[in-house]
Amino acid sequence: MKRVRAYTAMVLVFCVLVIFIYSTLNLEPANTVISTEEGSQRLRRGHDPEGQLKSTHEHTSFTTAEMSTAVLQTVSVSKDLREMIPKNEAYWNRLMHTALKGLDDGDYSFARESPWSLCRVENQELLQLNIHDFSSYPPLLQTFVRGMTCKSPPILIDQPNKCVAANRKEYNQTFLLLAIKSSPRNFEQRQTVRETWGREGVHHGGLTVRTFFLLGNSTQDDPDMSALLSYEAERFGDILQWDFHESFLNLTLKMKVFLQWTLKNCPQVSFIFSGDDDVFVNTPGLLNYLKSLDASKTENLYVGHVISTASPLRDPRSKYYIPMSFYDGAYPAYAGGGGFIFSGGLLQPLYSVSRVLPFYPIDDVYFGMCAKALGISAVAHEGFQTFDIKEQDRSNVCVHKHLMLVHQRSPQQTKKLWRGIHSPMLTC
Ligand SMILES: *[C@@H]1O[C@H](CO)[C@@H](O)[C@H](O)[C@H]1NC(C)=O
Ligand SMILES: *[C@@H]1O[C@H](CO)[C@@H](O)[C@H](O)[C@H]1NC(C)=O
Ligand SMILES: *[C@@H]1O[C@H](CO)[C@@H](O)[C@H](O)[C@H]1NC(C)=O
């Protein structure tokens, strides 16, 4: 009898044990779900344990690679542009035709970008082999050519939430995005723009204007502006900065990273203004013009001061000097980089063709080439004056009231003109 009781007790203990083990087994998946959720939450906040971050990283780079090939599969370059670029010995021409051939054959190796940290290793010897007079290029142009395939600098100051609505699920509609090329030291110009034509907010008629200043990094010879810039970025929320040297010949890179950034962070934008921080813009006039456009014109708009019959300048002393051995051909009609407008709907196609066209040292010419690749021609508008107006009209407020943009004005002139065009006493 005792034996039977002991036996029953053992069975009972066993059952309890089995139930216990079973319940822990059952609990485990639930636990895993929780911990994964925690993990991804931490991941979103950027504090993830190594392992999980790594696998997410792999996943991201995989999708990016996949996406970039997909992007290239959808790119087509117009016959117009193909015919405009002569097939000859010049370096850029050769790069361009290699890219076009790759595009047609589905061989996208031409579009491979080196990781930023390994960039600029394109050695002197290789370039001298390809460009017979490379060593006679001005030093900055040599630097440009060496870095032509470096296209993905890391971002230093970001504004990821500026275009996102309060519920974080959708983007707030932006009617006009002002993308202003600036440089770390130009605080005075930026502040003038903020106080005048670049004021953010909802303008008359409910049109939202948002402003971004696009900056590179100061060079070693400049004083370190990073502390001031972080303060400025926090105070005004309108600074975007990438880790490349601020330089005239890096403006094409600035355009490329801006297109990419906007596609990701601010895709819901109707029009984009790209321009300098030392121009005067009649924003109310611009908004009226854009609002008045026919629906058929708003989709592929590219408007500004059009330079229609330009070709490369061959004077080595010019800021815009292009040696014959670099590019031999004409320029497309393009809108002067001091300030022009394009449709938000062009962001994606422009970004895609910019993956095909090799970088060019002059950013507005490059933009014109990309537009031409899409079959879009620049529309000339009298109101854009990137080469300034007649000397005697330069302080005439009435003349400015009828303009869209004029280059170039000092901060003081800009403030005066802005007050002037808004004065109720003004009778033009
Ligand atoms: C988005 O729009 C809502 C309402 O229209 C506004 O309250 C909010 O501040 C806007 N967000 C940004 C980032 O402008
Ligand atoms: C670029 O920016 C980073 C971060 O602000 C800074 O540490 C670095 O020194 C800058 N580079 C140069 C060359 O100034
Ligand atoms: C462009 O930026 C890169 C990265 O900072 C720099 O190494 C290069 O010298 C710059 N190019 C020119 C032409 O200044």
UniProtKB/TrEMBL annotation:
Entry superkingdom: Eukaryota
Membrane association type: Single-pass type II membrane protein
Cofactor: Mn(2+)
GO molecular function, one term: N-acetyllactosaminide beta-1,3-N-acetylglucosaminyltransferase activity
Catalytic activity: a beta-D-galactosyl-(1->4)-N-acetyl-beta-D-glucosaminyl derivative + UDP-N-acetyl-alpha-D-glucosamine = an N-acetyl-beta-D-glucosaminyl-(1->3)-beta-D-galactosyl-(1->4)-N-acetyl-beta-D-glucosaminyl derivative + UDP + H(+)
GO CC list: Golgi membrane
EC numbers: 2.4.1.-
One Pfam family, short name: Galactosyl_T
Tagged with keyword Signal: no
Family: Belongs to the glycosyltransferase 31 family.
Protein name per its UniProtKB record: Hexosyltransferase
Organism: Oryzias latipes (Japanese rice fish)
Phylogenetic placement of the source organism: Eukaryota, Metazoa, Chordata, Craniata, Vertebrata
